[in-house]
Amino acid sequence: MVNGRVAGPTGNPITLAGLSLLGVWLAAGLPSWPRRSATQAVALAGVVGGATCLVLTVSRAAYLGVAVGVAALAVAWIVGRRRRALLILASVCAAGLVATLGYGLVSGSDAHLLSRLDGAQMGGLTRSDSLRVALWREGAAGLAWRPLTGTGPGAFVIADRLYRSPEDRLRQPWALASDPHSLPLLVASTSGVPGLLLASAFAALFVWTTWPRRRPMEDDDGSVRPRAPELRVPGLSYLAATTVFVLVSPLDLAVAVPVVFVAAVTCGAPAAERRLSWRLPHRIWRSWATALTVLAAVLVCAALAAAVVWGVQWYRADRAFAQSLRVGSPAGTEKAASLWSWEPFYSLEAGAKTWREGLAAQDAAAVARGRALVQQGIERDPTGALGYADLTLDIAQGRLAAAVDELCAGLRWNPHHPALQGLWGYAALIAQIELKDEALASELLAGL
User: Fold this and answer.
1) Closest to 161 (Cα-Cα) out of 419, 440, 374
2) CB atoms within 10 A of CB 199
3) Which pLDDT tens digit goes with each residue over 338-352?
4) Cβ neighbours of residue 438 closer than 8 Å, sequence gap 6 or more
5) What backbone phi and psi angles, to 5 degrees, belong to 251?
6) pLDDT-based confidence at 227, cuts 50/70/90?
7) Facing residues of 5 across strands?
8) Which of 50, 297, 322, 361 has its C-alpha lying 20 to 30 A from 13's C-alpha?
């Protein structure tokens, strides 16, 4: 439970709320399945589970998505004159509303949907809304910074480090955001305008494929491609709900995987031969079939073997790192950094612990090894603030100018970071008190 909201197996109430939207798809398909069948019973259980997750997570984005999905479903059923299904849908919505209000009264104000909609105390925006608006600004700034390439796939955290407001940075200096809570901004800020255009083209092609047509689509051999409305309505209702949800919420696999699956089902089976499809000529396929099959099998086996080896290596590194944190020994962190050097956090933690122990024991080799590990972590992620904060070794050894140069590089990627600014000021203090160098202290303070 997080403030009266259930996180569930996903570890996050928002993610569980996005998963609960599958209930819209299952509910929309109930009238199409045979009555009193095993399939209908399983689908009904899924609807109940989705409604339960929706109520317990108290996600406004999920409620908004469900409202849009139910509205789309209601319109389709009104056109299809499914009066009985509409009555059942209205009853379910009424029961869900009663359950929502009842859960809010039992769990307290934090879990009350109406209280989460009240933003009067923050100038019309709730705390969650203020966070979303700040992340949207960061996403727009990241797109403006690199409109062609963005920050890189999965690297929205760079935009968060660069464009977080000084107030938020001071309040939570080590907090990071990996998603702008909006799918279009996520694609635009991490993949640039070309990525956004590609995603938009993909969405447009999907809409064109699933759009209702007056005449059925025919294949070249004259056979009719099945496009029954019963196959499209559940999928389109669910996709309408998830579209609204991902416009204002972070994207997670618990949402992305069901969306891909439902979208594929909604599109239906591809036509055997169509104008926009292409098949390898039979003569070429007959000549190269064996070689291509063997090559594909080898590549798949190699990829699976590499995934297993690297996965075991990463697991061993993470286990050694966790064990070192329990006993407080740098040996485990060094082992983790050597097993999986691609994770900068392992190297930074191992380096900081190693050089501190080496400095206390007057062990020059340990200090050098620790410095090398910290530099390795910075090279893996030059935009992170933690690596530059670990370079207090330069300050401890009196190399103040070098320390300030490193801190300046860190502040370019993390403007207004209080820890880096504090270390810069601390270097000036050391210059004045311990080194008795007033000129150097004044120069460092002027730079700060």
Assistant:
1) 419
2) 16
3) 999 899 999 999 999
4) 432
5) -90, 135
6) very low
7) 2
8) 322
**Residues in CB range of 427: below 8 A, 6 or more apart:** 395, 400, 403, 404, 407, 444
What integer pLDDT is reported at residue 422 of this predicted model?
A: 93
Distance CA 339, CA 333 (A): 10
Q: Report the predicted TM-score, pTM, of the whole model to 2 decimal places.
A: 0.80
Query: From CA 43, how far away is CA 46, in angstroms rounded?
Result: 5
pLDDT score, position 120? 47
In this prediction, residues 323-343 reach a mean pLDDT of 89
220 close to 274: Cβ distance less than 8 angstroms: yes
Q: Three-state SS string across the chain, please?
A: CECCECCHHHCCHHHHHHHHCHHHHHHHHHHHCCCCCHHHHHHHHHHHHHHHHHHHHCCHHHHHHHHHHHHHHHHHHHHCCCHHHHHHHHHHHHHHHHHHHHHHHHHCHHHCHHHHHCCHHHCCCCHHHHHHHHHHHHHHHHHHHCCCCCCCCCCHHHHHHHHCCHHHHHHCCCCCCCCCCCHHHHHHHHHHHHHHHHHHHHHHHHHHHHCCCCCCCECCCCCECCCCHHHHHHHHHHHHHHHHHHHCCCCCHHHHHHHHHHHHHHHCCCCCCCCCCCCCCHHHHHHHHHHHHHHHHHHHHHHHHHHHHHHHHHHHHHHHHHHHHHHCCHHHHHHHHHHCCCCHHHHHHHHHHHHHHHHHCCCHHHHHHHHHHHHHHHHHCCCCHHHHHCCHHHHHCCCHHHHHHHHHHHHHHCCCCHHHHHHHHHHHHHHHHCCCCHHHHHHHHHHC
From CA 178, how far away is CA 168, in angstroms rounded?
15
Q: What Rg value do the Cα atoms of the chain yield, rounded? A: 28
Ranking 276-280, 296-300, 356-360, 390-394 by mean pLDDT, the lowest is 276-280
Does residue 301 register a pLDDT over 80? yes
Residue 349 and residue 344: Cα distance in Å, rounded?
A: 9
Distances (CA, A) of 326 to 313, 333, 382: 20, 11, 28
Place of tokens 């340990």: 366
* Cβ(255)–Cβ(15) below 8 Å: yes
Domains of the chain are: 1-118+224-270 (no CATH), 124-211 (no CATH), 339-447 (1.25.40)
Average pLDDT over residues 179-193: 94
89, 77 Cβ separation under 8 angstroms: yes
Q: Over 70: is that where the pLDDT of 183 sits?
A: yes
Q: How far apart are CA 390 and CA 439, in angstroms?
A: 26
Q: Give me the residue label for tokens 């991902």.
A: 246
